[in-house]
Structures are given as structure tokens and as C-alpha cells.
Amino acid sequence: MTATAPEHAGPEVREVPASPPSGTRPGTVRRSLFRALPVSPAVVLLLLFLAGPIVYCVVIAFTDLQLTGQAQESFVGFDNFTRAFKDEAFLNAVWLTLVFTVLSSLIGQNTLGLALASLMQRASKPVRTLTGGIVVTAWVLPEVVAGFLLYAFFRREGTLNAILDWLHLPSQNWLFTLPILAVSFANVWRGTAFSMLVYSAALNEIPKEVTEAAEVDGASGWRRMWHITLPMIRRSIGTNLMLNTLQTLSVFGLIWVMTRGGPSGKSQTLPLFMYEQAFQNSLIGYGTAVALLLLLIGSLFSVVYLRLLRTEV
Amino acid sequence: MPVRPTVRFTALFSLTALAATSLAACSSGSGSDPDTVKVSFKQSTDNSIKVMDTYLGDIKKQFEKANPGKKVELVPIKAPDSEYYTKLQQMLRSPKTAPDLVYEDTFLINSDITSGYLKPLDDYLAGWKDWDQFIDTAKAAAKGEDGKTYGVPDGTDTRGLWFSKDVFAKAGLPADWQPKTWAEVLDAARAIKEKVPGVTPINVYTGKPAGEAATMQGFEMLLYGTGTGSGGSDPLYDKGSKKWITAGQGFEDSLSFVETVYKEKLGPEVSDALDPNFGTKVRGELLPQGKLGIALDGSWLPQDWLEGSGHEWPEWSKELGLAAMPTQNGQAPGRVSMSGGWTWAVPAKAGNPDLAFEFIKTMQTKANAQKWYVANSGISVREDVADDPAYVDAQPGIKFFTDLVADTHYRPAYPAYPKVSVAIQEAMEGVTTGDKSVEEAARGYDEALKEATDNQVVSK
After folding, report:
1. Which residues of A touch B444 (CB under 8 A)?
2. pTM greater than 0.85 (yes/no)
3. Which residue of A has its CA nearest to B14?
4. Per-residue pLDDT tens for A245-274?
5. H or E segment to which residue B63 belongs
């Protein structure tokens, strides 16, 4: 769950300044220092436990550090990065990460979340409560539990095939034949609630008069959606896409439990590739370099969304 | 929208308090107590299996009684093998977290020795009488490339063919089956496929999800029986030039065997074989339910069927037969087995190495060692225990698997071995799914081998 800090809306300062404000006077500096004092422990903690490890990560990405089997590590410059771009398994992981993110986050969670939210707008209260409850339940389950549930659903003797059998339809074996599709479904199943909540809130913000006016003017449902609703919740779409994408990029547990990235790396997204390199092949340096590349992919997505957010209607 | 100052003040105050307390918590380091031995071991991921916990609890009692004032702290790590190694290596990196005694797989010990994680034990061993009872091959398993010994083995394991007598009877195969060549193994599987529907004829672990089980129980049981090179030489690693050997005829023949098993549908469904949880299914379901004809597997299987394991199967010794894995064409010595095993080692950064070795001595009295071998379905590495009728008759199968030690092979567990192992699993996976021909998989192995060993390769 990604928590965004609420904007700090403090009361306006009512103190009467002892002298006309001028920014550079020692009194003001001292006062702002004094005001910074209470947050300093938090800042120190953040530097120590957040910035510290991140800097350390960047440093070891340029070494050949191994978890075991090596007496002394050394700096290797950009070797890890050049190695990654020559490594077929890495390129395969990048491709699968993009497929996974686009399928499950951009298309799946996002669209389904919006659809559910719009439908629930018009539903009766009990229906709304029930649907909302079910969807949110999937979301609050721990990742590993969700993974096992969906593994049990998709596997060859699993629930899905039992249902298909009962309907006399041919059975599936996606965990083996199309694993990336199976884990994408799993991620949609698990993560849609978040989008649904964001969009429910956004849709509630749209003034009723606007939609009613459009209705009176004879705009159909689709047109109202396209010309009124979507532009009005554009900001929420951007925020939701950003949070969703970043969450999806770093999904590990779900895929690990369902397929371990297999068979033959057919569902090995970057986080799983990273884990394999760092902890199973003991190549901590290489794994960390891959982690930085994953960070880069995440920031590329973010930049695109930020641009989307910035454009004014 | 203004916030009431009280709220803000409370928030800030609690944040500051939190920061202060967590900082204080961080500064109190975990100093090691000179009277406590910290022992790390691998706890089974199966909650119902408490073999090791029970045994170590018993040793702890003995040790604390014999050494008044000293305490033993058991630190279980509950994880599958590969994750246990990772966790352990992270603990070994710092004196703050390093235990005094660790349970190390021979698969990785050389790698950890190279990293400087472990302490040589030669000085301790020189003054320990029981060390003479250990067989030479087992002593070698924990020897570093510097010739020093870094661990005391607590048993070994061997591998062979388990087969279901019931399935064999239905397929018209003998109850005292002992194949002489690979072809006979495959023929038996074909007979089962033909006559006993609904049963998986043979299981050979394969692919990356099975991990080291695929390499050792599967591939190496084949490769070491191909008899490439002269007697006693290792088909994976050339000791003379200290280089790894690229895929030759024996390697390709072994891949062909795996390919045949899966292509002719003599094995499990490919998707099952590549399911990371398949090993559990073989031991817990397929064998006990008579749904598997032949299993190429390890000597430790019965520990899953003991009292209190959750899937007891006391009749296993009547319902299963045992046969040695034959060499490829029956060439001498006619049978093949691989051995691994675990050792007790002392971390380089341990606070109480002396006390840790005392604990090893307590574990390795003849009586305690014997108790452990039996409890753990392990194979004795001590001559005095191996000769003891009480051990030999303690459990069905012990004699069979102990006899295999004479013809067993050890993995070339040098630092690069874990990566070589992954390369083997990838080659196996390619021929299992049919994505690659034997030839392609072998060439792929050659490439991966160069990568894994920094080009330290040689063709033979």
C-alpha cells in the first residue's frame, strides 16, 4: 500500500514579527532553525535508513560483489550494465516486465477499476457494499496468500479446470503455456480494488449538475463518459496510473509463489530476475545493477504520467 | 484548511519520541555472550517434520549438563535450501550476526570458504580422537582448495532407484528388479506405460524449478555413469588443469536420456515436472499412493514417512523396492551413485569458536552420531557406526544405501559449482520442454559454462 503524505496545511503564523520581515536577518534564521528542530530526528532517521542503503546500492552496482565464492570484490565500472544489455535473460525480463505492467496495470486494473467504480455509482447500496467488499478483500490479502490462491485456481488440477470441465469446455494449463498471462490475471484480481477506490472517490467529486446538463442535452452514456467524466477525473487517472505502475513493476511475491518465473523464464519479470542473479547465483553486484535499471524504467513511466498530469484542460 | 495546533503538536511530539526510541534501539548492539553457543540450522519447511529440532534439543541438554554454566541457543532458519544458503551467507558477513556454529551444505562450502566466511578446524581436529573414525571421502567433502578442513560431516547420502512393487507386478516386471543398463531402465518404464494406465512410469527431476535436485538426483546420476575419460576422473571438472569440462558425448547422452523420458511421456507431465513444488508431491503423494513406478531419488526419502511426519507410511519398506542406478552400458563398476551431505562448520567471525567445537564433539560421539543418522535417514560417514549392527538394522534401506558409498561420486563443489549447476538445469529444461534439441542444449551449456567460470573451460 502506498501512502502519500497529506499536504501539510498548517495555520497561518499569527505571531507579530519583532521587526519587519527581511529573510536574511539572524532572528528569522534562528527561528526557522528552531522550527526545524522537531523534524530533525525524522530527517536523521530517513538519511540513515533510507538514503544510506540507496547510496550503498548505487556503489555496489559498480562492483563485482558476490554473496559467496569470492575473496575480495573490486570496482568494475559499467561492466554490470553492459553485461545486462548483452544478457538475453535480462532482455527477456525487461520485455516480460513491460508486458506484465501494460497488461495487468494499465489495461487490467485501471480499466476494470474505472468500470467497477462507474457501475457502482449507479448501483443500489447493498450491491455496492457487497461488490466493494469482495474486491477489497482480494486486495487486503497478503501477496503470498493471494499467490497461493491463484496457483490453486490455475494449476492443472485446479478450480478453473474443474469449472471448465463441468461446462464441458477444454481445460487450460496457463501456468505452463502462458504463465505471464496467468500472473497478469492474478495481479488484476489482486490490485483492481485500489483503482476502484481511487476512481470512486474521483467520480464522486464530479458535480451532478454537469452530468445532468449533458443528459438533458441528449448526450449518450459513452459520450458523457468520453467528453465529461474522463476529462474531469484526468488527474486521478494520472495519479492512479503512476501508483499502479510502480506497484506492478515491483511485484515479486505473487509471481514467485505462482511460477517462480518459470517455466524456462517465461514469467521472469525484472524483480525475479534480480533475485535470481543476486541470491541464487550470488551475483550481488549484477543484481543491484539490474535493480537500478528497474528503477530507471519506473522513473520513465513516472515522467510520462507526470506530463499527462501537467497538461491543463 | 487549518489544522488545530494541538493535533500538530501531538503528531510532532510522537514522531520525535518515536525517532528517539528507535535510535536508542539501534545503538544497543547484539554482543555475543562468551558462555553461549549460538547454533544455526535449517529447519524443515514442513511443520510436521521436527527431526532436527528434536535431535538438537537433546544434544543441547547433554551439552549444558556436561558444561555447567554454558548455554546453547538454537537459531532455526526455516527455509527451502536455496533460501537457507542466502540467509546464512548474509549472517556470516558480520560479527554482529554470525552464529558460533552453522550447518553448511557441502554443495556450497567451498564457495563460503573462498569468501573467508569459515574458520579452518585443523588445530581442533588434530586433538580429537573421533576424527580418525571418519571415512576419507567424507573428510574430503569439507576440505578447501588450500588443503585445510573447514567442516565436520554429519552423515552423507546416496541415490538410487526406488520402485513400486505393486506397479511392477501389474507391468509384469520382477520384484527383485536390478537393471544393468540405462536401456533396461527405459524399457521397464515403457512396460509400465503400456500396461499400467494412470501411473507415471518414472520420475527424473529436471529443470530450474527443481534446482540442485535436478542436477544431482537427475543429471549427475546419469553423467557419472557414462564413463567418459579414465577411471576415477570427473566428467564435469578436470582436476589437472583446474578447468571445467565442456559438454562431450557423455553429457549429450545424459541429455538424450532426459529427453527420451519426457518425449515418450515416460515421465510426469512436463508442466508438473517444472512445478517448483513437485518434489513434495513425489514424496508425499505419488510414491505412497502407488502412482509412480520408478523414482530416481535420494536415500533420505523415508524421513518423510516416519511417525509424526504428517504422511506416515510405515509399509513403505514392503511396498517399495530398491535398485542401484546402473551405468550407461553396464561398464564397471556397474552402478553409480552421487553423494552430498551436510557439515557442521564454525564461522570465521564466530564469537566462541572453542565452545562451538566442543558442541560438535558432543554431537559426534558415536552414540549421538548414530542416533542422528537413523533419525535423519542419513548414511553413516563413521566406520565405527557403519560396522554397528544396531545401525545397519535400524531401518530398512540403510544397508542398501550404505553399500552404495563404495561406488559413489562427490560433486566438484568448487566456488563456481552452484552456477554450473544452474547451467545444467537450463540445459535439462530445454530438452524437457522440447524447446531445444540435445545438440542445442549442449552448446547452450558450453556458453553458460564459460560465463559461470570466467572462461576456465576445457574440451575433452
Report:
1. none
2. no
3. A38
4. 999 999 999 999 898 887 888 899 999 999
5. helix B51-66
